[in-house]
Design brief:
Radius of gyration: 17 Å
Number of strands: 6
Order of helices and strands: EEEEHHEEH
Shape: globular
Strand order of the largest sheet: 3-4-6-5
Largest sheet: 4 strands, antiparallel
Amino acid sequence: SGITVGNNYVDLGLPSGAILVGSLRYTGALQIRLAALTTSESQAAALLGRMQSALTMARAIGRQGKEQDDPAAQIVNSVSLKQSGNKAVLTADIPDGLLHELATAATPKTPQD
């Protein structure tokens, strides 16, 4: 299962019948929580295994030439994965500084007289 973004389909690797639930919470950093509700514990375990593999790869790539205080590295290093019954849960934090940078970059600039 996946999602369509614009004209592009992105395969999320969700098992058939799974439901993805997401939430955001601000606590000085933006906490992201995604829970995949699958139809069985074995589906959740398999999904968690794929997520762990992707996370391991992202962390390895991030270590190549990146500073550990780099915002992208901070996000990847904050990711936590766990299984609770038929749920595979991912949590991550986006640092406040990175949120500020993104908001500043997204703010349209007005022409000066």
